[in-house]
Specification:
Layout lengths: L9 H13 L8 H5 L23 H8 L5 H13 L1
């Protein structure tokens, strides 16, 4: 069952914005503040070729890969790719 998003009308949007601006304790975010929640351009897009799975890996192995820092999941993928060659 999918849910349908109902957007406010222009009048409703104006009323919402007016109410938000009238509340000094809950002002809307400025564009600069809002930018911090946007995806950073430095992170590459995925290839679209990966599938999410659940797999059990020994704790020691997982700790070793995680200890190498960011990108550890890609390194596990690369290690598995090397193994199948």
């Amino acid at each position: 069952m999918s849910k349908k998003l109902i957007r406010p009308t222009d009048i409703e949007e104006a009323q919402i914005n007016a109410a938000a601006l009238a509340d000094p304790d809950n002002l809307p975010l400025t564009e600069k503040e809002f930018q911090q929640f946007r995806r950073t351009p430095g992170r590459p897009q995925g290839s679209g070729k990966k599938e999410q799975v659940t797999i059990r890996i020994d704790t020691e192995i997982l700790e070793q890969f995680r200890a190498t820092g960011s990108g550890w999941q890609t390194r596990i993928n690369d290690a598995l790719r090397d193994w199948i060659k």
